[in-house]
Amino acid sequence: MKKNNVYILEDRGLLYVSGEECKEFLQNIVTNNINKVDEKNSCYSALLTPQGKYLYDFNILKHKSGYFLDCEKKNIDNLFNQLKLYKLRSKVEILNLSNEFVIAVISKERFLDMENSSSIAGSTIKFREDSIFLDPRNIELGARIVTNLEKLYLSLKKLGLQSADKKEYYKLSHKIGIPQNNSDKLQNKLFGIECNFDELNAIDFKKGCYVGQENTARIKLKDKLNKRLLPIEIIEGDLEDDIISYEEYEVGKVLIKDDYPFAIIKIKNEKFDFDKIFACGSAKIKVKKPDWIKIT
What we know:
With 296 residues, the chain is an alpha+beta fold. The protein contains six helices and 17 strands. It folds into two domains: 5-176, Gyrase A, domain 2 (2-Layer Sandwich); 183-287, Beta Barrel (Elongation Factor Tu (Ef-tu), domain 3), CATH 2.40.30. Helix content is 17%, strand content 33%.
């Protein structure tokens, strides 16, 4: 990621959750601690099924008297409807502002040149009333600008940034080992904690109850995390099948194909090793180990 590049992510959407009880509403359902979020800090979080399976993931950013949820745009309507189901009689308003606001990404280095910035994941500052926050998942993903569409290009001009192909950014995200595309392919397919949410700062195990908390805590405390979502590299052929195998043994399954593939891998299977080349139908693949992940 070049220092003065900016990547405009039109494929991200924004929900705005506000109202008298918005903080308590989010605190009771999302995996992270909403008390961490203020004008100087943002967080990464998720919404799970009651059984602890993955549904949606998003960044949470303080905005005026409420909170922005930065989510993949293709999921925004379904996330909106899911939140409405939990709203019941809460004094909460939920708005889809995806057509009014946009997400853009700048490099970590450019962010750290800005006044009041910090190298702490989630660090949040203001620039011309726009919020900019260092990615709370991994600071190597740079910082995200949340701005009104009408102000976007003026803000980028004042920052001296040059627009670059967002594929460059998503390629980096895949290399780091963090999925951001086609997350709908993960829904109900794996537990949230299998998405590496612990290492990506998405779960607060001390906050108390949230949707899916019981199974998430059980897997963590009893060391039952036997599978993980990991990036894969295609060595040869095309991903025409889902099952990943070594000899006749299944070691995983591809969940996200397309340009930035990810698979759920049985990391404790005796046949699994990061140094091996695996078969996936007629394709040959390798499973990549992100630098930040802890696998014993």
